[in-house]
């Protein structure tokens, strides 16, 4: 049995990345972080996704990043709507060092579990300009993991698996549908209404809609 720790947000990408890792033969332990995100509905989605995937163990941690601030996802600042996704600026939905923090937590748990594999659903194409979704960042974190842990010093080698990193959102959806995933379990919206309905206008909603359209599929969330 080869264990992998997967960072599971409850979104479309992490669900698909986890399913790919499972299809590759990994036994999955999932880590979901409550970080003070305004779209906390995704935590419920992560629980549903974990059940659907038959996750061996699902760990939820609270690391409230609201005190640090710096993001519209962890504050009352407005989430941008109808943004030009070709723009080169980093949007306010970027959470400072989020993937570095999350990967560090996953790395610590992996070391305790005796696992050397971590799965992350980052994507370098439809990624809204986030610097911590780039291949260069992933490669750097792998080097850090080997240097900063007892397992690494003793000869273990950690690998960060990013099966979606070169895929378009449409390709991600096609791959997930081929694996039989129910995307109706997921939540993507950064700025949901009080009844958790997606806004349809934030970056995440726009990218999701574009992906389903280009994949020639219907988003099951729109059928509710």
Q: Please state roughly what percent of the residues sit in beta strands, choosing from under 5%, 5-15%, 15-25%, 25-35%, 35-45% or over 45%.
A: 5-15%
Structural class: alpha/beta
CATH class: Alpha Beta
Per CATH, the architecture is: 3-Layer(aba) Sandwich
What share of residues is helical?
25-40%
Q: Provide a count of the helices.
A: 7
The major sheet is characterized as: 5 strands, parallel
Question: Can you tell me the CATH topology?
Answer: Rossmann fold
Q: Got a strand count? A: 5
Instruction: Pick out the low-confidence regions.
Output: none
SSE order: EHEHEHEHHEHH
Distance N terminus to C terminus? 39 Å
| Average predicted local confidence, pLDDT | 94
Lateral strand order in the biggest sheet: 3-2-1-4-5
Number of domains: 1
CATH homologous superfamily placement: HUPs
Radius of gyration: 17 Å
Shape: globular
Task: Report on this structure.
Strands 3-2-1-4-5 form a five-stranded parallel sheet, sandwiched between helices. The protein has one domain (3-223): 3-Layer(aba) Sandwich (Rossmann fold). The longest helix is centred in the middle third of the chain and has 16 residues, at 98-113. It contains seven helices and five strands. Helix content is 37%, strand content 11%. It has helices at 12-23, 41-53, 98-113, 135-148, 150-153, 169-178, 203-215; strands at residues 3-7, 27-34, 57-62, 117-119, 159-161. By secondary structure, it is an alpha/beta fold. The mean pLDDT is 94.
Would you spell out the secondary-structure blueprint of this structure?
Elements: E1 3-7, H1 12-23, E2 27-34, H2 41-53, E3 57-62, H3 98-113, E4 117-119, H4 135-148, H5 150-153, E5 159-161, H6 169-178, H7 203-215
Parallel strand pairs: 1-2, 1-4, 2-3, 4-5
